[in-house]
Amino acid sequence: MIPTTTTNTNTGTTTMLDDFLVRAVLAGLGVVLATGPLGCFVVWRRMAYFGDATAHAAILGVALSVAIGGQIYIGTLLVALAMGWLVAHLADRGEAIDTALGVLAHGALAFGLIAASFVPGLRSDLNAWLFGDILMVRPVDLAWVWGGAALVVGLLVWRWEAMVSATVNEELAMAAGISPRRERLILTLAMAITVAVAIRIVGALLVSALLIIPAAAARGFARGPEQMALISTLIGVGAVLGGLAASLYADTPAGPSVIAVAAAVFLLGLPFRRGSA
Amino acid sequence: MSAPQLAPIIAAQGLTVRHRGAERPILSDVGFAIRPGEIVTVVGPNGSGKSTLVRAVLGHVEMEAGEVTRRPGLRIGYVPQRVHIDDRIPMTVRRFLSLPHRVSDIEAAAVLARTGVDGLQQRQITRLSGGQFQRVLLARALLGDPQLLVLDEPTQGLDQPGIVDFYRLIEEIRQETGAAVLMVSHDLLVVMRASDQVICLNGHVCCHGTPQAVSAAPEYQALFGADSAETLALYRHHHDHRHDEAAHDPHHDHKHEYGHHHHA
């Protein structure tokens, strides 16, 4: 087989990162490292729409960043954080959260698309922001993805017991000295970071798919929350590798292929789910 | 302190709680004291503030006025009302007991055995029967050797024999460990005969005292109907008998100190 590394003409050195496929794999793995465990909370807490709202708001963040010439990752992070804060605030006030989230999620997407249409540079590659462009990942994107993923995994490891407790039952968590409100905010922060770094890779429309599908597929095979987080991450890894392979050999679009493989794993796993344990 | 068992382990005074924006407080000027080893039962109609009282005592809701005094270092075990664990979260009984603070296998087995559900460690918690689940919750509350058990309608979803068994279990645990019990209950008859003090709540303390005194109080009868007092009388013989049996328990010496207090 022919080596796939190419020569970097600027420096004259050859590194593995010069290969777009290696970068794509690394970027995908970085994203699923964060979405694997975080997606479990999305499933446990029924926050699917929350993921949508945050991710769709990120499009608005992209448009604003490009318009003012700012750093896109920071812009999307800030807008995603603002949306997350808004949603968490509504949830605290006990609004009919399902409806509110639906309005916010799709409203944010609509405003984001309108904003994007006014930004000349964005019109042409809007698709890349909606569906991601994992094959176009630059080394600098890798730094953002792995930095963000490390931060998210760090937050989740640090707060794991408290977050799981608050998810299982808020009263029991409070009795153990845990503040469910604080854990919710940390979860919101983790979600915003994940969306901000993942949007370049899988796009605003598919981020929440990457949160929900591997976790949902893992549910049937896990006996405990930690096991579910691990299996979810592994399914995410498999989806990235399988999706990229499909993209390479069957020339399918990369981002959707990753999601499709995850969905296939979910479906194939259905008959093998644990019965009553 | 030289005074043996009479100092309250927890006491509330003038406790007032109002939901945000609500015109009327859900609790106003509620006070009581729980001494070591006592079983104190809170009864009252739906919406009378029973759970709010429990949550205020635990510090889970903000009080508008009043004060809760705990003995320093008081260890509390808590069974909240209507615990529902979502089926989407995989969780064995064993893992549940270690959440959020890890406990050893030995400790876990001991509390499960105490509540009669040893051997369920590896079962998924959402697959337990209602009775098993409530016993697992009680087992979890027993971790860390509590001096006060706070139980908010712990017999939720149990059938009648299950309810009787459950209260018997609570009484046994009280006798073995000397833990005091603050309990919210709907099961008037069964619960009252096992209680040292009954607090009849309806936004405020309607009446308060020994089960006999409370069941005879007009305020109680107004809330629950005169029938409830009559039916209680049928159980009273049994109630007295049980207390005679427990006479060796040092924590029982104080029980007749409580008269019947009317509150405005």
Question: How does this structure look, described?
Answer:
The complex is a heterodimer of chains A (277) and B (264). The longest helix of chain A is centred in the middle third of the chain and has 30 residues, at 139-168. The termini of chain A are far apart. Mean pLDDT of chain A is 87; it is low at 1-12. Chain A contains twelve helices and no strands. Chain A is mostly helical. By secondary structure, chain B is an alpha/beta fold. Helices cover 35% and strands 20% of the residues of chain B. Chain B contains nine helices and ten strands. Chain B has a seven-stranded mixed sheet with strand order 5-6-7-3-8-9-10, sandwiched between helices. In chain B, a hairpin with a 3-residue loop joins strand 8 and strand 9. In chain B, helix 3 (105-114) packs across helix 4 (130-142) and helix 8 crosses helix 9. The radius of gyration of chain B is 18 Å and the shape is globular. Mean pLDDT of chain B is 82; it is low at 234-261.
